[in-house]
Amino acid sequence: xxxxxxxxxxxxxxxxxxxxxxxxxxxxxxxxxxxxxxxxxxxxxxxxxxxxxxxxxxxxxxxxxxxxxxxxxxxxxxxxxxxxxxxxxxxxxxxxxxxxxxxxxxxxxxxxxxxxxxxxxxxxxxxxxxxxxxxxxxxxxxxxxxxxxxxxxxxxxxxxxxxxxxxxxxxxxxxxxxxxxxxxxxxxxxxxxxxxxxxxxxxxxxxxxxxxxxxxxxxxxxxxxxxxxxxxxxxxxxxxxxxxxxxxxxxxxxxxxxxxxxxxxxxxxxxxxxxxxxxxxxxxxxxxxxxxxxxxxxxxxxxxxxxxxxxxxxxxxxxxxxxxxxxxxxxxxxxx
Length: 336
Fold this sequence. Notes:
The protein is an alpha/beta fold. The protein has ten helices and twelve strands.
């Protein structure tokens, strides 16, 4: 962090559309100049001296906090969140059509301790499948991808192994050496009419609506963090940044509801989302994310990603003003 009269805050974030108002300066953080670097991949905030904060894996953040590492201060702003039912893929000719059928299967995934894959394995576990009975292989989604953090820093279960150099999840699935794969992002060919792959679940939106009804939350994947020394130097920054993130999200939603022609069926999706989830399906704030945080901590331990039970109170201990007021129809219109 540097600057003369106004402190400069440098954040590394992927270019999620709900962050665009903040990225472009349309939404500002009072008392600070926020400069956002749009990243293709999630940054390692602690490894980059030029960053004051940024987008961070929820799993890696929770594990650090559980270990007593408080070098990052997490804001209860989950900039990436989403249901994981859609993340299980099989071949188009596969007989598998449910999580229950993955018992004893060979399943590939993009990273073992990853937040999204932890949530997806939770669905498999909830379906009654013993994760120890699955043969897991960890590797890149497509050939040529590299990521040294796929396996994490802790010992892996005996039934988890890394793929060999040159292998990929899509290649192994297509060849029949895997029965299914778990991936937060769809492979390019998934968007083509001759794709070799399909979702495991025939109607994943219905399963996701049922999950929402049962849990009351959409799983959080990545959150915004700030370095501890930055927060200590500017204790007013976290709350101010959190409020700006909320304002950016609200402005983005107002614009999307006005400019619905960015995809052929966006209006239908927005209307259905509002009907199912209410006005805000991705709420910010510690209290509004408490149930989701507790469930995630439980899964990390239950799946053996972390060896001991995790107290959810250590994850987001800082107090922030909340809940955020729900926007009125007039406010949403003015944001547009």
